[in-house]
Amino acid sequence: MSSSAEPYPGNEYDPTLPEDFDSAHRVFAELRARCPVAHSNAFEGFWIVTRYEDVLAILMDPQTYITSVRNVVPGSSTTGRRPPLHLDPPEHTPYRRAIDRALGAARIAAIEPSTRRIAADLMRRLVSLREADFVEEFSSPLPAYVFGEWMGLTEDQTRVLWTTAKVYVKAWEAFDKARVQVASEQLYSLAGELIAERRRAPRDPQVDPTSSLLEARDAEGRPLPDDLLAGCVRQVLVVGLVAPPILLGSIAVHLSRDQALQQQLRSDPSLLPDAIEEFLRLYTPYRGFARTARHEVVLHGRRIRPGEPIALAYASANRDERVFPDPHEFRLRRPNIRQHLAFGRGPHACAGISLARQQLTIGLEELLKQTSHFEVCGEIRMSGMPELGPISVPLRLTPAR
Ligand code: HEM
Fold first, then answer.
1. Residue nearest atom 29 in ligand 1 by C-alpha distance
2. What pLDDT, on the 0 to 100 scale, is given for residue 8?
3. What would the pLDDT profile of 235-276 be if each residue is shown by its tens digit?
4. 92 neighbors 78 (Cβ within 8 angstroms)
5. What is the pLDDT of residue 120?
6. Closest CA to 251 of 352, 185, 342
7. Topology at the third CATH level for domain 23-43+52-399
8. 64: left (phi > 0), else alpha (psi -120 to 50), else beta?
């Protein structure tokens, strides 16, 4: 990062242009080489940082780069502050601790049989269709039903969560603010219902995230305020539903293109955890979250003023050739694979890493186990920023014999 600054910038990155499965990565490679801190005029203007070391440095400096102004480009919350993502440490800490408490190793292990049952049932249905949209029928309901288990929702509440979260995500995709607002309010109402139920009948805070948040205290020993508590449960309800469908969709596309790898993973499921880690790097489903600098900063000669959004391109950092040789290649067991930034880093690093790894591995295992072959058989539709990856993957599946 250098110290001299240049005049006000132009439109060096345009995430609103049509994208195919590979094109965003070609654009990022170009930016990493020639313009590592680029300006975009889209979405009322933002900066995007594309090199690994710069993204990591910003994530590890939460004193300078905060999330409480906005944590994502495009958009910011129109319906209130939602911890943990919308708060900076130290206000962020009690919410984060309470969520972490309900995601311990024992809780994750206890959820595994349900995740297997849900994945197996969804996959049986998908395979019986022979041709269907993999995202719609499998990778999108899977995390929603697993979330229903983790959050202790009733069947009805799980159905409401899945249908509302789908509308919410599609409305984001279409930049339809009015529909985003309606869906967000419905999610708030589900969060309110859950909080009221757990106040009446608290559950074990090591098991139930809402009960854990109700038991949490701030630095002065006070309960968390009602509005932020509702915002947090509302945030938690959807935070794990967006990335897994997209990543599993990317994996299905990759394995359609590489049938040898598909067969290798099918015949040796012990390779799956390592394969998932490399897929997380290669097809990082969050293009990036955002930060805002507290004071003016100069990065690679670009002057960034306080208040200007800075998108951290995790998807680009994870294909930075300075850190990952042959970055566009799938390589099982890269020596430095644990350095990838698919789950972020620093105080806001993903709280659901273990839950995510579990459902991704089991989801892929079921896809491979219940088929002898699958391939893409139609048009792949891509998500817009802040995600990166397919939101529709038509698959033709041959059942396992
Ligand atoms: C493929 C799956 C997933 C990916 C790639 C992913 C990625 C991420 C990333 C990159 C962040 C950091 C945001 C930032 O830097 O501002 C994040 C935050 C978070 N994730 Fe995940 N996530 C996944 C699944 C899940 C699941 C299943 C949960 C379930 C509990 C979850 C819960 C959270 C929470 C609560 C935060 C906010 C953390 C904080 O602000 O302290 N995520 N995730």
1. 352
2. 54
3. 998 889 999 999 999 999 999 999 999 999 999 999 999 999
4. no
5. 98
6. 342
7. Cytochrome p450 (1.10.630)
8. alpha
DSSP 272-305: HHHHHHHHHHHT-SB---EEEESS-EEETTEEE-
* CB of 239 shorter than 6 A to ligand 1: yes
In the chain, domain spans: 23-43+52-399
Q: Whole-angstrom Cα distance, residue 267 to residue 263?
A: 6
Two structure tokens written together for 22: 């590979």
Q: Report which ligand 1 atom has the smallest distance to the Cα of 92.
A: 41
| Closest C-alpha to 153, from 119, 191, 127, 121 | 191
- Centre of ligand 1 to C-alpha 340, Å, is 14
Ligand 1: does its nearest atom lie under 6 Å from the Cβ of 115? Answer: no
Instruction: Establish whether residue 249 lines the binding site of ligand 1, counting it when its CB lies within 6 angstroms of any ligand atom.
Output: no
User: How many other CB atoms are there within 10 angstroms of residue 42's CB atom?
Assistant: 16
Q: Let me know: does 232 contact 102? Beta carbons within 8 Å.
A: no
Note the pLDDT of residue 7: 47
pLDDT digits (tens, 9 = 90+) for 44-101: 999 999 999 999 999 999 999 999 998 899 875 555 788 999 899 999 999 999 999 9
The number of angstroms, rounded, from the C-alpha of 144 to the middle of its chain's C-alpha atoms is 13
Nearest CA to ligand 1 atom 24: 240
Does the Cβ of 356 fall within 6 Å of ligand 1? yes
pLDDT in the model for residue 169: 82
Residue carrying the six token digits 């993957």: 393
Query: Is it the case that residue 322 has pLDDT exceeding 50?
Result: yes
Confidence of residue 2 (pLDDT cuts 50, 70, 90): very low
Report helix, strand or coil for 164. Answer: helix
Asked whether residue 3 carries a pLDDT value surpassing 50, the answer given is no
Q: Inform me whether the pLDDT recorded for 234 exceeds 60.
A: yes
How many alpha carbons lie under 13 Å from residue 260 in its C-beta half-sphere?
1
Nearest CA to ligand 1 atom 3: 243
